Amino acid sequence: MAQKKAVILRIDPKLWKDLNIWAKDELRSLNGQIEYVLREAIKRRTGEKDKN
Questions:
Q1: CA 42, CA 48: separation in Å to the nearest integer?
Q2: pLDDT per residue over 3-49, tens digit each?
Q3: How far apart (Å, rounded) are the C-alpha atoms in residues 1 and 9?
Q4: CB contact at 8 A, 29 and 20
């Protein structure tokens, strides 16, 4: 598996709180939730079909 890249992210406190709540609702870490949201956005942007 490829090594993950570290990124510094400056984020609005309200957005951070909302993402954290969403992550907990879906049993993910905040980092995992951000990765999930970004991955889904890329799928929509590129038209990639769900592989499930």
A1: 8
A2: 989 999 999 999 999 999 999 999 999 999 999 999 999 999 999 77
A3: 24
A4: no
Q: 24: part of which helix (H) or strand (E)?
A: helix 13-25
Cβ–Cβ under 8 Å, residues 50 and 40: no
Helix (H) or strand (E) holding 37: helix 30-46
CA 51 to chain centroid: 18
Angle at which helices 30-46 and 13-25 cross, to 10°: 90
CA atoms of 44 and 9, how far apart (whole Å): 23
8 Å CB contact between 33 and 26: yes
